[in-house]
Amino acid sequence: MKKFYKFTMFSVILVFFMGCMSSPMKKYYQIHLENVNVGKSQNIDIKVIDKILLVEKIDIEEIYNDYRLVYRKSPFQLNYYSYKFWIKKPDRVIRDAIVQYLSNKKVFNKVIMEFLEWEPDLIMKVRTNIIEEYDIGENWFAHLSMKFKIIDFESGEVILTHKFDRKKRLIIKKVDNIPVCLSKILQEELDKVINNLSKKLK
User: Fold this and answer.
1) Biggest CA-to-CA distance, the chain
2) Which pLDDT score is estimated for 181?
3) Domain residue limits, the chain
4) Which of 64, 193, 66, 191 is nearest to 128 (CA)?
5) What is the DSSP annotation of 44-94?
6) What is the pLDDT of residues 25-64, one digit of tens each?
7) How far apart are CA 134 and CA 84, in angstroms?
8) What's the pTM value of the predicted model, to 2 decimals?
9) pLDDT tens digits, residue range 79-134?
10) CB neighbourhood size of 144 (10 A)
């Protein structure tokens, strides 16, 4: 009986460790926008905007605001990766990336996330409709759809609206490349927002 018990326990432990060893390793991702000086990205001549900008919390489609990365193989079904995660929920990942990028770029006098000691001149509202991997046939795409609004804090007037829905094909089909391509799309579109805003405020 003791031998049988020991054999059973050994088998359970062995199966457990084999399961752990064969499980895919979890990976965590973020959105990262390159630290490019004002006016250098995409050869866009961006002027410094003498304003304080508040970036509000990101409004995001609920199904995408999950730690797990989303992938899609058809227009009718969404799936979640089991071992591929954002380091934070996408609403926070995107907001942090935008604030850090604009702060590093020094486009504005100051970029803030909260009403603390500073009263903003402008408010940036961001809506994220889609953030996913979209597989079409043999091709993989990073798919990002967003809408930006820049609002005058004092008057409440909408100064600028910018929206896009873009897919960027992955040269190498690896999930690791999805956040990279999403970051490139966001950076390009964010530069357009700032470029157009600087023209509006001339």
Assistant:
1) 87
2) 97
3) 24-200
4) 64
5) --PPPEEEEEEEPPPEE-GGG-SSEEEEEEETTEEEEEEEEEESS-HHHHH
6) 999 999 999 865 544 444 555 678 999 999 999 999 999 9
7) 15
8) 0.84
9) 999 999 999 999 999 999 999 999 999 999 999 999 877 899 999 999 999 999 99
10) 25
Average pLDDT estimate for 67-77: 95
Residue 11 — φ and ψ, nearest 5°? -65, -40
Cβ atoms 179, 27 nearer than 8 A: no
CA–CA separation, 150 vs 160, rounded Å?
Answer: 5
Which amino acid appears at position 127 of this protein?
R
CB 196 within 8 A of CB 188: no
pLDDT in tens, 164-192: 999 999 999 999 999 999 999 999 999 99
Q: Cα 178 from chain centroid?
A: 10
**Token pair of 68 as six digits:** 């797990």
Q: Mean of the pLDDT values across residues 127-153?
A: 97
The CATH number of the domain covering residues in 24-200 = 3.40.50.10610
Per-residue burial over 50-76, b if 16 or more Cβ lie within 10 Å, else e, is: ebbbbbeebebeeebbeeebbbbeeee
